[in-house]
Design brief:
The protein has helices at residues 3-32, 39-46, 50-56, 60-75, 83-86, 93-121, 126-147, 154-162, 165-173, 178-192. It is mainly α.
Length: 196
Amino acid sequence: MPRSYRQSRRAAAQDETRARILAATMELHVEQGVATTSFPDVAARAGVGAATVYRHFPTPDSLVEACGAHVWEEIDPPRPDRAAAAFAGLDSRADRLIRLADTLDAFYTRAQAPLWSAVRDQDRVAPLAGFLAEIGKGVTAFVAEALQEAPQSDNVKRAAALADFTVWRALSQAGHDPQQRRQILVTILQATTRRD
């Protein structure tokens, strides 16, 4: 068997093992939290030895960061470079706020499990705070674009706080459907952001 073939098979097997470890870790993060997920838990779920997990991810933070990169691609969060395109062709403030509410609702709906895991443990697992800060930058950029104001303005800061995932989650847990969440968010943002 040629050496390059053996090496490529070994690399493929390592990639598959790494993917299993990441998948197991993400499941456990949602089920029991990021801070309480241990390497032995991950190894058992992935069907590998703990040493294998350590070989791929030498520290818990390296495992959390790898999961975060995978989750980032999966949840496709609002990003500052996409904000202008998201509101293209909308002139009225009301239409822009509706677009903002709908965009954030769709994002929070698809990302709710990993976001809640990150929010819950951000004070105990350092990489989670950075992950959530990046999400916050994207949300703030979308809010700024919707309001057509600078991201540092008081209106944008206030609106971004009200458009936060934790507010969305509270509305969802109160039993509000997407239409109701949109109406509530748009009404609150109209009432709390003033036009100069």
